[in-house]
Design a protein that fits this description.
alpha+beta
């Protein structure tokens, strides 16, 4: 049975449908972000857990120069070791059909059975290599897809100086390469880097590794941590040139995935909170006005015996009904947003089965959060309705007490046109309402700034890395460190105009109880093809007397300039040396430590050597150069600057474009909702006043100027405040993107500020046009009959 109160509720919802829809849309945006981001996070987490568990992802990894297979039993005997897989892993250059640049293949050996005990290979198509055939390989699915390769395709690789034609007999993926990047890479470039799995005998014979291995992966018993195994494993492998064991948390692919999951989790929390906070604000303003307008109805309800709680619940139901509309629209939008995010992550994180999953928990949290927003937003208005005595409620609300403001007493207002004078007086006499309106618009503008923050950060990263740090066109990595004279041989290649060598070695840096495994890079003091440049600190010169370290690394180790750091070199003499920190650099990609190249060679106990070269090339001869580089046996990988720039740009753009556009779209809805509600409420509150001005002789245009001008002033005041709010929110976001792989600087482009303010201005204009139509229908007769 429909009671009078339900009829009253339906009537109010229909009469205020514009404002109800505006508030409901804001709620829907918050729900969509919560359901979408939380669902994407859960989908990734579920896929990760299933894949890691089902395919026995390793807990500990280690690389060595060459260790005999006889070591396996000693490693297996270590306490807590459950599974051991020894491999031969080598990076080689390759010629991929239809691709002129040299690609890099990471060869990973497979046991004779074809199925590794650890890091099991998931075969999508085809079959495992025949142990009797040395030319059969399984290619990673993402590399094959990027290059149009299928089962039956062939690629040419340079194995220890010999060209070998490899037949792809299978397409697969491994939990070790959920995020597939190679040496010297931070972001994936699946056209130029790929993993292939090949029979152990084939790769062993090619590199003289019979009866040996250079890579090992372990799984551990439940309750045993990687830290408990790393030290004893290092002691066993030290004599074989171990580069230092490390746990799953430091494995490159897993670290990227873990960072992304942490970032999504934070985003799925703070963004919905902001949206729901704004929706609470809208409900508060809407219900406050409704209670004021319905004083007489409240008085009648109480006079007819309805209690204060019943009346209060009536207005709470109004808020809940508004929120319910938002939930009904937000949940489907959130599920669609989740599919977009999962499709995006599927391009970077490669699982056998990554699907968008509906999260009951996210739906429950979304509903509860919306109800909480309704209760908070409606709370003050509900209390006012409950406390109104019937006799007082049935009387018209007392006019606000007005008195001369400072502007009046100073005579400032007298010099203004009458319309502007009325606008300023009204704002000055109701500062609370003006502040609430301004705050709502400012929050919405701030969210618009946040929506484009990621795109600006990407641009700053690229500008720094490829405008100031990297000036080389091509980077070469050697299989092993070469004498420095190798640079003269490379300079003779066609198209090479200049070459600068660098030496890289893995190192454990320790300060107190903190430690971090990084690549220590030796650069020439006068090098200019690759510089050490910070985002704010400018260029830093490498020193032979100490280390220049990334600010992120300094933060991790809790070190500063002048502090001494223990460096355990994992190559050469494997010295443990102590060096001071001579400078820190706030770079934006990766974490690094730098030293002068010759000083590094001395510490390694070697004559001057290089791990690779930075090249400046003649682009007119690049094809000839690439053709030669593909066939040089000493080179393990070739990185082309233009390709890296394209890869990083597309990776970060795709990562942030969807989320940024969605957030910007949602923020635009908030801006429109807030501005529209403000102007509609202002019209409702001042309808009689504006009609009175018409009776007194003001034209329709003059009355419209007063109403719309007031909202225009509030919007104009809110815009700079919104920029400040957005800047503050972005500052809170910076730690979320503070990863080892990249850091997002706090930088906002002018275009971002412009596009953040544009929706607010457009929404204000659109709302103004909407209310102009209502102004034409002001009831002037009703004004003359009004009892004051």
């Amino acid at each position: 049975m429909v009671t009078a109160l339900w009829k009253m509720l339906g009537r109010d919802l229909w009469r205020l449908r514009g404002q109800v829809i505006a508030a409901a849309l804001v709620v829907a945006c918050g729900i969509a972000v919560l359901v979408g981001m939380y669902g994407a996070w859960q989908s990734l987490a579920i896929a990760q857990d299933r894949y890691y568990t089902g395919h026995r992802f390793a807990d500990v990894f280690a690389n060595v120069k060459r260790a005999p297979l006889g070591m396996v039993e000693q490693i297996r005997a270590l306490p807590g070791v459950r599974g051991v897989e020894t491999r031969i892993v080598r990076d080689v250059t390759a010629d991929v059909p239809g691709f002129s640049e040299p690609a890099t293949l990471r060869l990973v050996s497979l046991p004779a059975s074809g199925v590794p005990v650890v890091n099991a290979l998931f075969l999508l198509r085809g079959h495992f290599p025949n142990p009797a055939r040395e030319d059969e390989v399984v290619a990673s699915a993402v590399f094959a897809a990027a290059n149009g390769l299928e089962v039956g395709s062939r690629i040419t690789a340079i194995l220890n100086g010999r060209s070998r034609n490899l037949a792809i007999v299978g397409i697969g993926m491994s939990p070790e390469y959920v995020y597939e990047v190679g040496q010297g890479m931070v972001f994936p470039d699946n056209r130029r880097f790929g993993v292939v799995w090949v029979g152990r005998e084939a790769v062993a014979s090619a590199f003289g590794m019979e009866g040996a291995f250079n890579d090992i992966a372990l799984t551990l018993d439940a309750g045993v941590t990687a830290r408990q195994l790393i030290d004893p494993l290092d002691r066993l492998l030290a004599r074989y040139g171990s580069l230092g064991a490390y746990g799953r948390e430091d494995q490159l692919s897993n670290r990227f995935l873990s960072d992304e999951l942490a970032e999504i989790g934070i985003t799925a929390t703070y963004v919905p909170v902001l949206f729901l906070a704004v929706s609470s604000f809208l409900l508060y303003t809407l219900l406050s006005r409704l209670v004021t307008m319905q004083r007489a109805e409240i008085g009648l309800l109480k006079a007819f015996g309805y209690g204060g709680r019943t009346v209060a619940f009536q207005y709470l139901r109004f808020g809940l009904a508004t929120v319910s509309i938002g939930v009904a629209a937000g949940i489907p939008a959130g599920l669609y947003f989740e599919t977009l995010m999962v499709d995006l992550y599927r391009q970077y994180f490669h699982f056998p089965n990554l699907q968008a999953t509906i999260s009951p928990r996210a739906l429950i949290v979304a509903v509860l959060a919306s109800v909480a927003a309704a209760i908070v937003g409606a709370g003050a208005a509900v209390l006012r309705a409950a406390r109104l005595p019937p006799a007082e409620a049935m009387r018209p609300e007392l006019p606000a007490g007005f008195r001369a403001s400072l502007l009046d007493r100073a005579g400032v207002l007298r010099a203004m046109p009458i319309q502007l004078r009325l606008i300023v007086r009204n704002l000055a006499r109701r500062p609370g309402k003006a502040m609430l309106s301004t705050t709502g618009i400012a929050l919405a503008v701030g969210l618009m700034v946040v929506g484009r923050f990621g795109l600006d950060g990407v641009k700053q990263i690229l500008d720094l890395q490829f405008g100031q740090v990297q000036h080389d066109d091509v980077t070469l990595f050697f299989n092993e460190a070469q004498p420095a004279a190798a640079a003269f041989d490379v300079v003779q290649l066609p198209g090479v105009m200049r070459a600068e060598g660098f030496r890289m070695t893995p190192v454990w840096l320790r300060h107190g109880h903190r430690a971090k495994r990084v690549e220590l890079t030796g650069l020439d003091a006068g090098a200019d093809l690759r510089e050490v440049v910070g985002y704010t600190g400018g260029r830093q010169r490498v020193s032979s007397d100490g280390l220049v370290v990334s600010a992120k690394l300094a933060e991790t180790l809790h070190i500063g300039i002048g502090d001494r750091v223990e460096a355990e070199l994992l190559e050469g003499r494997r010295n443990v040396i102590t060096l001071p920190v001579v400078a820190t650099v706030d770079d934006l990609l990766g974490i690094s430590a730098y030293i002068e190249r010759h000083a590094l060679s001395r510490q390694l106990g070697e004559s001057p050597a290089i791990s690779g070269l930075y090249l400046r090339i003649d682009t007119l001869k690049e094809q000839q150069l690439y053709a030669r580089l593909k066939r040089l046996p000493a080179i393990s990988s070739v990185i082309v600057r233009s390709a890296v720039l394209e890869s990083i740009g597309s990776t970060l753009d795709r990562t942030f474009v969807i989320s940024s556009l969605v957030l910007a779209g949602f923020a635009s809805v908030i801006v429109a909702g807030v501005v529209y509600n403000n102007i509609r409420i202002a019209l409702s509150e001042r309808g009689n006043e504006l009609a009175s001005l018409r009776v007194l002789g003001f034209s329709q245009g003059e009355v419209a100027t007063i109403l719309i001008g007031e909202q225009a002033l509030l919007t104009a005041a809110a815009l700079p405040l919104g920029i400040a709010v957005g800047y503050g929110l972005c500052a809170l976001l910076v730690p979320v993107f503070d990863r080892d792989a990249f850091r997002m600087p706090l930088a906002l482009e002018r275009a971002t500020l412009f596009f953040a303010m544009l929706p607010a201005a457009c929404a204000a204009l659109a709302a103004g046009l909407l209310v102009l139509r209502r102004l034409r229908h002001l009831d002037l007769v009703a004004v003359l009959k009004t009892r004051e």
